[in-house]
Write a structure and sequence with these properties.
The protein has a 4-stranded mixed beta sheet with strand order 2-1-3-4, with helices on one face. 28% of the residues lie in helices and 20% in strands. The C terminus is likely disordered. It is of the alpha+beta class.
Length: 138
């Protein structure tokens, strides 16, 4: 890790970028009630940003990418915590599928309150759940 990256990692996240899939052939069939809480969180944050994007399947696992026959299950989003000057802080996190407004509201609440406080994101919304098994150390 470079010196600048190490310094940035010690700074609390003041902002975020949320990329929400809007691909018509994939997640893009989302109900507006699912996206509105994320829009509101971005508007209320001094350094929050919501981006609508094409399919993220080239960069992340997406069951809808390249003709997979999985029915649309909701919106998939990527959140990148960042500093005031938009320097990324830590890894990007993937969430979804967000299938109900309550899912997006829980994510929006974490963006507004939990992210700046260094709290963990809502586990049930993560696209890939971290393993509960920790390898033993010798």
């Amino acid at each position: 890790m470079s010196g600048r990256t190490a310094r940035a990692a010690r700074v609390a996240a003041e902002g975020f970028t949320v990329a929400a899939c809007q691909a018509s052939e994939g997640c893009g069939g989302a109900d507006e009630s699912v996206l509105e809480p994320l829009r509101a969180a971005a508007r209320q944050s001094n350094f929050g940003m919501l981006i609508s994007t094409a399919c993220l399947g080239r960069h992340l696992y997406c069951p809808h990418h390249e003709g997979n026959s999985v029915p649309r299950a909701g919106v998939r989003v990527v959140v990148q915590p960042c500093s005031r000057d938009r320097t990324p802080l830590g890894p990007a996190l993937t969430f979804g599928p967000l299938t109900a407004a309550a899912h997006a509201e829980a994510l929006a609440a974490w963006l507004a309150d939990g992210l700046p406080q260094g709290r963990r994101p809502p586990r049930h919304l993560l696209a890939v759940h971290p393993s509960a098994h920790q390898p033993r150390r010798p």
